[in-house]
Design a protein that fits this description.
- This protein is 30% helix and 16% strand.
- The chain is α/β, with parallel strands linked by helices.
- The protein folds into 2 domains: 85 residues; 107 residues, 3-Layer(aba) Sandwich (Rossmann fold), CATH 3.40.50.
- The strands form 2 sheets. A 5-stranded parallel sheet has the order 7-6-5-8-9, with helices on both faces. Strands 3-2-1-4 form a 4-stranded parallel sheet, with helices on one face.
- Strand 1, helix 1 and strand 2 form a beta-alpha-beta unit.
- Helix 1 packs across helix 3 and helix 6 crosses helix 7.
- The relative contact order is 0.16.
Length: 237
Amino acid sequence: MVRFTHGGATGDLIFSLPTIKAMGGGELYITKYDEQRANSIAELIRLQPYIIKVEVVDTPPEDCINLNKFRDHAGHHHNLVEAHFKGQGIPVERWQDGWLKSMKVDLPKGTNNLKGANHSIGIVPYCIINRTTNYADPNFNWAKEVDYLFTLAEDVIFIGYESEYNTFQELFNTKARFMPCSFLEAAYLIHNAKMFTGCYSAMSTIAMGLGINYRLEQAPGHTCSSLNEPRETIINV
């Protein structure tokens, strides 16, 4: 049985999955960087057919393949999927079509879970957005973007931390609404959305992994974020 270990942030973990898949799959041991986030993303990773087991540990088994070697290549490649392949010395395989699968989950019901909503999620078409303070582009017009997303769907939902949503609203004052969710729930929401827009974050890497329509707010000078697409390009729309 092949074993892998990774100690990166959530997005780095998601970008490592194509390499695990290309190497035949196996067990993944996540070293703790944030126990709550690690356990949350482990729920989603366990759904992938090429993953046999996921554990969050302090110290991984000694025979694990070290996926952290991607760091030696991160500054030399267009994206972190490529960097993970290069870190293991294997040819870059096709991954652009998506490498994550989602699963239907029971989302919270009722108006208390979606700020300002008068209906439960999923009844009407929606778009998903996320913005963190990391890797943000100060020139990205979020007010215009949200208005555009409302032409695609009747709802625009912000997922992530509530503090991120509050900061977002202070800056852009949009009609987007907030919904708290786990990474497993986020994957289901993103997978069924009309479109996802976000900056480089765990949520955007999930969108890329699912292979859905997305637009990336890419920070100037940040070279390892998009998957071979120029800034502000919509894929598959």
